[in-house]
Design brief:
CATH superfamily of the largest domain: Alanine racemase
Radius of gyration: 22 Å
Number of helices: 11
Oligomer: single chain
Distance between the termini: 42 Å
CATH class of the largest domain: Alpha Beta
Shape: globular
CATH architecture of the largest domain: Alpha-Beta Barrel
Bound molecules: pyridoxal-5'-phosphate
Helix content: 25-40%
Strand content: 15-25%
Number of strands: 16
Number of domains: 2
CATH topology of the largest domain: TIM Barrel
């Protein structure tokens, strides 16, 4: 089952549609990550592509060592708002990107030998001029898949992500102090174990020459059944064997199950079956539901027919497939009812859009300690218009 079965805020205190992040749940995840750090000495970065709610960066920065960015914009956000290490990896950079990344990043990772060779002098020159040290790393492709669907598998055949061993030029590794890979997606430590073996097999001669190795993201560390002991064992064994620092850069694990999307039922229509139209949109506000795809969980609802009253739940846009699914409820739904979708902090605010002119959900923080609500961001017509011309 994806997500929580309950929530502890008062949905009637919220203006919908909105995302709400429960800070207490975020603290709980951070405690688990802190435990991994304490037991391994590894460093953990927040993957901004997944969760970039900068209002809570000061809290996250008490535990995590920095951020991993995928672009100059994310790197700048991390540099300005997080205030710790900024590691940047992009599939390719332009010269303008590199000039900006030298300013905002501490680690710059390359996806090809060609880009490494092209931009190394620019980084060295920036270091000399500014006195700032920038570490250079490369992303490798372990060529080891762990069964993620192809769309989310950077080791699938034809992947453009990471340098394969056959393409790696040892004569160009001057100044490279870090290796990075990413091949997991919502997976457990057994997948990491097999990946580490594959990396050691292909790249073992290089690991000992590095200062650090970054195991990427996709580790579902804060899921209740995740094998934490195995993760700790893998990281400690690796560090001891190779004498290098280990980084992890999870996104999901940081804010897993910490957030919700709350929507109001605007209409109950008859369309082959009872259909509730909510003031939200699946492709605009929870795009991963269609992209992954998966069925989001609505708290208190069951599968079709599991409870007495079944409804198709659909969104505001013109897309025929703007549908979350068919859900059943104990009581009939009525106009004005609020539905709470769980696990909506991750890959939502960072990916949403205004297709059809649908408004963006406001963003709330809920502090369970004193039962307080803060609407930290709301959006309007200007946000929609600004992206158009
Ligand atoms: C390079 C890299 N690092 C980290 C992550 C974060 O992964 P997750 O949010 O699944 O932990 C991703 C996700 O795509 C990624 O591509």
């Amino acid at each position: 089952m994806n997500g929580r079965t309950e929530y502890r805020f008062d949905r009637d205190k919220l203006t919908t549609p909105c995302y709400l992040v429960d800070v207490g749940l975020l603290r709980h995840n951070l405690e688990i990550l802190d435990g991994v750090k304490a037991r391994t000495g590894c460093r953990i970065l927040l993957a901004l592509k997944c969760f970039s709610m900068f209002r809570v960066f000061p809290l996250i920065a008490l535990t995590l060592d920095g951020v991993c960015a995928s672009s100059p914009h994310e790197a700048r956000l991390g540099f300005e708002e997080f205030g710790r290490e900024v590691h940047t990896f992009g599939a390719a950079y332009s010269e303008a990107d590199m000039a900006e990344l030298c300013r905002t990043s501490d680690h710059i990772l390359f996806n090809s030998m060609g880009q490494l060779d092209r931009f190394r002098p620019m980084i060295k020159e920036y270091e000399t001029r500014s006195g700032k040290a920038i570490k250079i790393g490369i992303r490798i492709n372990p060529e080891h898949s762990e069964g993620a669907v192809e769309m989310y598998d950077p080791c699938a055949p034809g992947s453009r992500l990471g340098i394969r061993r056959d393409d790696l030029r040892e004569d160009l590794l001057d100044g490279v102090t870090g290796l990075h890979w990413h091949n997991l997606c919502e997976q457990d430590a057994d997948c990491l174990d097999r990946t580490v073996e594959a990396v050691e097999r292909r790249f073992g001669d290089l690991i000992g020459r590095m200062d650090y190795v970054n195991f990427g993201g996709g580790h579902h560390i804060t899921r209740s059944d995740y094998d934490l002991e195995r993760l700790v064992r893998i990281v400690n064994t690796f560090k001891e064997k190779w004498g290098v620092q280990v980084y992890l850069e999870p996104g999901e694990a940081v804010a897993l199950n910490c957030g919700y999307l709350v929507s109001t039922v605007l209409d109950i229509a008859r369309a082959d079956m009872a259909t509730a139209i909510i003031d939200s949109s699946v492709p605009a506000h929870m795009p991963d539901v269609l992209e992954m795809p998966y069925r989001p969980h609505i708290i208190g609802a069951g599968q079709d027919q599991e409870k007495p009253h079944s409804y198709r739940i659909g969104g505001l846009s013109c897309l025929a497939g703007d549908v979350a699914g068919i859900y059943s409820f104990d009581q009939p739904l009525a106009v004005g009812d609020k539905l709470v979708f769980s696990d909506m902090a991750i890959y939502t605010m960072v990916k949403n859009n205004t297709f059809n002119g649908v408004g963006l959900p406001a963003i709330y923080l809920y502090e369970p300690g004193d039962d307080s609500y803060e609407c930290v961001q709301s959006f309007g017509y200007e946000d929609f218009k600004k992206r158009l011309s």
